[in-house]
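Justification of computing resources. Each target in the renewal requires a structure prediction run like the one illustrated here; the chain below, 396 residues long, is used simply to show the kind of job we budget for.
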Amino acid sequence: MSNARLLSTIPITTLLLSAALLAAQSAPAPHSNTPTVAEPREVTPRGPLLPEEQAIVDLVEGVAPSVVYINTTAERIFYDRMTRREVRREEVPTGTGSGFVWDEQGHIVTNFHVVESLLTRRSNNAIVTFAEGPAFNARLVGFSPEDDLAVLRLETDNNSASPQIKPIPIGTSSDLRVGQSVYALGNPFGLDQTLTTGIISALGRTIPARAGILINDVIQTDAAINPGNSGGPLLDSAGRLIGVNTAIRSPSGASAGIGFAIPVDTVNEIVPQLITYGRRIPGILGIKGTDGFVNENGTRRPVVLVLEVNSPSAQMSGLRPIRTDADNRIVSGDAILALNDRPIRSLTELQRTLRQYKPDDTITLSILRIEPVGEPRQLTLRVKLAPPPDIRPRTR
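Resulting structure tokens:
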């Protein structure tokens, strides 16, 4: 064999050997009758929770029995298109939200907008479900659209509270600080017993309620508040109620880090009135007024003219009714310009503003006093508001 043929044969032999080795390596292993068994991994001990974690866990476990899921329904009647006869009836959902136990008598506090459908639909019903599962029918006993608050009462067999009912601990909103931790507990999107955390972002906010009424001293928080959280509690680090989650500011309708809660001091003032009287009891100024105008620096300014002064407190303050001459021109009397530095331009605006105050509150009125002789002069009067004359506790 020549050297040339030997050299050409060696590479071919090498390639054949390499292919054989590769085929041997890629060939499947001989089949075994022994099955492969996988076992769960051993759990690594984690040790105790961090103190701050344990504090939050204890907070939730302590308050959860007081937080409820509220579902409102209405009866819908279906009719046959041809005969117009009733075919069937079904309970359809009309609203959902959160709430919490107020007292041992089974009163549940929530937002008015959560249960508003109970006032507008026939054969309506409210169902209150607790964290551990029991559900009760409930009836609406009082509401205040101006404060976005409402009170339900559980309907139990003996009209008394069930043993598992646990009123929520009440705090105060008078000593809250921007930056302190808060916890929102509720049922966002129907997911019950959901906790979100955050801080108080601001205090003293004002948000609109119904009919142009403003809710004052509102708490702003970045704790996530989503649809379904409405009516649920906002808690401090001691697990006390400091507010009622009521609204968010978001273009999408989902949490965007700006949520609002009605302060607990307002809740603690209004809820007893709703339970006792079924409605909020406003303070009464005790006057009869009408829309009018006065000339001020050459311009006509809308005001409320005082026609009658009826309550003793308004009389004691020095308010004077308007007097006119034969040509119906104002000769003397008072025109209301502002209430607690808020401009008053109409009787409706005065009535709306007064709804924010309760009996025995003292307000400051800025008035323009017109005298028979001389130029009108501005005065400041303090008036103690009176209770409505027809107020009576409702029957249970």
